[in-house]
């Protein structure tokens, strides 16, 4: 008989894949903009609406998952994704020109659906494998980043020149897929005595370590038993054996009393803002550069342009996925083997973001854009591979969905700011009637001045966080005599 846990993990990974379609925004946004005669600012506002749905609603989605379990959020996510993409498909078909509020709403609810699905997937993976939470959550985290590659490849092979059908496919695939996964995901019912035996076995080779980090002292329901089943992080691959720490459960406003949390949320907010601006505007960047290269609107080949978009979105997704795996797995190895703090990976990501911003300011070739996309996506994925693990390590698993949801508010705010700046700058260089810009990189490059400054601030914050974590680790090692 097949165990329920692998089924749940497979379903959670599928949910992550279906929930990450927001990263494929640039695979259909330029076509929607042309079809509905939208300005760069308007199409950015549509992207911002999606980001708001994902990030600003994440704390509420997280609280819903923590309070009511998984099935209800997953079914709600399925409904939101279906209605959102179906509405966008309808708007494309009828060439909607009655204002952008309806388009903003449709994209906003796709974001809500993504938030519900993603947080439910992470929660299901973590609670299904309490002894290996780091490894288990890596799968839905990675598949979330891989989503854009999968769907951009689908668009490239089956829907070139058929954006309406592509949007309809997104609606059906995401809606039906999440609904079916909600029927497959079930947290295992654990026997308390068996859980204690499992815990003793996991500690049998580590007699020198205290059983710290216990979340609950008692419990009566299945979900509570899952929490009792293991310490927060010690028996997981998340925390090295030599650095056992006692973590108290912290949530809500109390998090903002911790300087480390404030530094982390600032770093993730600033870097994500730059990343979301890039993700939402790959299509606009390519259009501007390609139009300048061919010297006229008449010479532009829409098929070539769509292939360039699909290639960039695919690279974005692949390197985003690889970065998430790298941030989780390699940071585990680095912390265990050489005691390098995970915040070092945030620092490295911030430096890469600065370099990409400076390079994008000077780049004039549409074919070279893919290299900057790969570098930025790697840094972006690494940041999101490390961020949830840092949150889990420091503040516990009991309210993890809500805590990570709070961190996720920052990208929503900064992403909106950077996207608005980009749209405003692009429109200033565009024809006021056609909304077309034909001055190449000058259409948008001033936006990267702002991202370079913001990411430089993130570098300073990441350096401060790294120094603090390194100092704490040394003090802990000194006290424990290791």
From TrEMBL:
Parts of the chain that traverse the membrane: 40-60, 72-91, 103-126, 138-160, 166-187, 261-279, 310-331, 343-363, 369-390, 402-422, 448-467
Keyword terms, alphabetized: Membrane, Transmembrane, Transmembrane helix
Localization of this protein: Membrane
Principal cellular location given in the protein's record: membrane
InterPro entries for the chain: MFS (IPR011701), MFS_trans_sf (IPR036259)
Positions of the UniProt region annotated as Disordered: 198-223
UniProt-recorded Gene Ontology molecular function terms: transmembrane transporter activity
A GO term from the CC aspect: fungal-type vacuole membrane
Record keyword Zinc-finger present: no
Bilayer topology annotation: Multi-pass membrane protein
PANTHER family: RIBOSOMAL RNA-PROCESSING PROTEIN 12-LIKE CONSERVED DOMAIN-CONTAINING PROTEIN, UNCHARACTERIZED NODULIN-LIKE PROTEIN
Protein name: Major facilitator superfamily domain-containing protein
Naturally occurring in which organism (per UniProt): Protomyces lactucae-debilis
């Amino acid at each position: 008989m097949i165990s329920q846990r692998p089924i749940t993990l497979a379903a959670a990974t599928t949910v992550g894949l279906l929930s990450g379609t927001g990263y494929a925004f640039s695979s259909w946004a330029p076509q929607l903009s042309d079809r509905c005669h939208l300005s760069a600012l308007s199409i950015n506002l549509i992207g911002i609406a999606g980001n708001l749905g994902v990030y600003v609603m994440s704390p509420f989605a997280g609280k819903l998952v923590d309070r009511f379990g998984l099935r209800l959020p997953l079914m709600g996510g399925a409904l939101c994704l279906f209605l959102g993409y179906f509405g966008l498909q309808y708007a494309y078909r009828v060439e909607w020109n009655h204002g952008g509020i309806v388009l903003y709403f449709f994209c906003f609810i796709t974001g809500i659906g993504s938030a519900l699905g993603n947080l439910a997937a992470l929660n299901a993976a973590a609670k299904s494998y309490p002894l290996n939470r780091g490894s288990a959550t890596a799968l839905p985290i990675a598949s979330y980043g891989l989503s854009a590659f999968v769907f951009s490849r689908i668009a490239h092979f089956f829907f070139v020149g058929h954006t309406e059908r592509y949007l309809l496919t997104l609606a059906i695939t995401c809606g039906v897929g999440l609904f079916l996964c909600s029927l497959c995901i079930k947290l295992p019912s654990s026997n308390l005595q068996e859980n204690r035996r499992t815990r003793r076995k996991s500690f049998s080779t580590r007699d020198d370590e205290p059983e710290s980090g216990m979340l609950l002292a008692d419990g009566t329901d299945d979900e509570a038993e899952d929490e009792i089943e293991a310490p927060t992080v010690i028996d997981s691959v998340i925390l090295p054996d030599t650095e056992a720490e006692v973590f108290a459960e912290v949530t809500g406003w109390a998090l903002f009393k911790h300087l480390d949390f404030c530094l982390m949320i600032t770093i993730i907010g600033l870097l994500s803002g730059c990343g979301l601006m890039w993700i939402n505007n790959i299509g606009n960047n390519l259009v501007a550069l390609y139009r300048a290269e061919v010297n006229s609107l008449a010479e532009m080949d829409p098929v070539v342009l769509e292939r360039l978009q699909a290639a960039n979105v695919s690279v974005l997704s692949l390197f985003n996925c690889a970065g998430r795996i790298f941030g989780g797995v390699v940071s585990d190895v680095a912390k265990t083997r050489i005691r390098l703090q995970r915040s070092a990976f945030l620092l490295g990501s911030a430096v890469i973001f600065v370099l990409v911003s400076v390079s994008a300011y000077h780049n004039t070739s549409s074919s070279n854009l893919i290299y900057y996309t790969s570098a930025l996506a790697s840094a972006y994925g690494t940041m999101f591979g490390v961020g949830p693990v840092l949150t889990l390590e420091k503040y516990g698993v009991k309210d993890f969905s809500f805590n990570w949801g709070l961190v996720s508010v920052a990208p929503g705010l900064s992403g909106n700011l950077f996207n608005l700046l980009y749209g405003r700058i692009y429109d200033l260089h565009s024809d006021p009637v056609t909304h077309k810009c034909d001055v190449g990189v000058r259409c948008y490059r001033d936006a990267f001045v702002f991202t370079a400054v913001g990411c430089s601030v993130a570098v300073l914050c990441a350096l401060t966080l790294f120094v603090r974590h390194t100092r704490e680790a040394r003090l802990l090692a000194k006290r424990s005599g290791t």
